[in-house]
Amino acid sequence: MYSIRLSGIELRDPFVIASGIVPDVPEYMARVCQEFSPSAITTKTFTLNPLEPHKPPTLVKISDGCFLNAIGLGNPGIKVMGSMEVPCNLFVSVGGSSLEEIVETAIIGEGKASLIEINLSSPNRRGYGADTAKFVREIVKEVKGKVRKPIFVKLGPWDNVVDLAGKALEGGADGLTLINTVKGMKLDVDAGKPVLSYGTGGVSGRCIHPLAVRVIGEVYSEYSAQIIGTGGVFSWEDAMELFLAGATAVGVGSAILERGFEVLNELRVGLTAFMEEKGINLSDVIGMAVRK
C-alpha cells in the first residue's frame, strides 16, 4: 500500500476512519488500532463540557448503504482525552457553540492528537455547525494561535462551501475535511411522525457520494488544498473518485457500519492492485479530474 503525507503526518495508507464511527472508549480504540491498523482514527466530536445525545432512536438505515443519524454531538467532554492511550494516529474532532469554547477544546485535545479537526458542520444540534461556520476564519485564526498540531476544518455541502473553505484557509487551516452529512428526514407512515426523535438527521453513505465528489472537486480546483474526503466510500472505485477530485486522504464511515472494519483492508488491496496495474502513484491522480 502507498503511504502518504498529510500536513506533515506520515500515514501508512490514505484511509482513515471517519468521525463518529469508533466509540470514545480507549480500550476499544486500541483494539481497532491493533487489529485493523487504520492510518488514523477520527474521534467523535468533543465539546468542552459533556453534551447529552438526543434521545433514541438516533440512527436509522434508509436504504442500502445509506443512513440517517441525529446523535447531536453527544459526548463526555474533551477532558476524557487526558486518559486515552491509543497506539495509532488520533485526529481529534472538536466543536462548540462559541469561538472561545472551540479554542479551549482544541487546546485540551491537542495533547493526544496528531491532528485537530474543527467540526463546523453538524446539522443535528442547534447552536453548533452552520451557526458557527460563518465565523470560520476567526475561529481558525484563534485556534492556530494556540495549537501547534495541524488544523483541518470540516465543512458541509452548502451552496457557499467554496467560499467558506477559502475563509478557513485564509485563517491558517492546514487542510479541510469534506463533506459532512446532509440534513434530511424520514417519516414513519404508520405513526405519522419522524422516525428519529430529533426529527431531522444527517444523511450519510452512498446517498451523498456524488455530492462529496462534486464539492471536493470544486474546492480543490479553486485552492489545491489538502483534503480528507468523506462521503459514501464503499469500494476502492469510490475512493479513487475522491482522489481524482482532489482528496489527499479518504475517510471511511458508513461502510464500516454496514460491513465492519475489515472493509479497510478491502479498500487497500483494491486500490493497490489498480495502481500497480496502471503503473501509477497516488500523487499522480490527486485532483487529476479537476486541475485547471
TrEMBL record:
GO cellular component: cytoplasm
Reaction equation(s) it catalyzes: (S)-dihydroorotate + A = orotate + AH2
UniProt-annotated location(s): Cytoplasm
Binding-site positions, substrate: 44, 69-73, 119, 180-181
Required cofactor names: FMN
Domain of life: Archaea
GO molecular function: dihydroorotate dehydrogenase activity
Annotated InterPro entries: Aldolase_TIM, DHO_dehydrogenase, DHOD_1B, DHODH_Type1, Dihydroorotate_DH_1, Dihydroorotate_DH_1_2, Dihydroorotate_DH_cat, Dihydroorotate_DH_CS
Domain Dihydroorotate dehydrogenase catalytic, residue spans: 5-275
GO biological processes: 'de novo' pyrimidine nucleobase biosynthetic process; 'de novo' UMP biosynthetic process
Cofactor, free-text remark: Binds 1 FMN per subunit.
Enzyme Commission identifier(s): 1.3.-.-
PROSITE patterns: DHODEHASE_2
Pathway: Pyrimidine metabolism; UMP biosynthesis via de novo pathway
Positions with a binding annotation for FMN: 19, 44-45, 119, 154, 179, 205, 231-232, 253-254
Main location class: cytoplasm
Keywords: Cytoplasm, Flavoprotein, FMN, Oxidoreductase, Pyrimidine biosynthesis
Active site feature: 122 (nucleophile)
Family that this chain belongs to: Belongs to the dihydroorotate dehydrogenase family. Type 1 subfamily.
Function of the molecule: Catalyzes the conversion of dihydroorotate to orotate.
The protein, known as: Dihydroorotate dehydrogenase
Naturally occurring in which organism (per UniProt): Metallosphaera tengchongensis
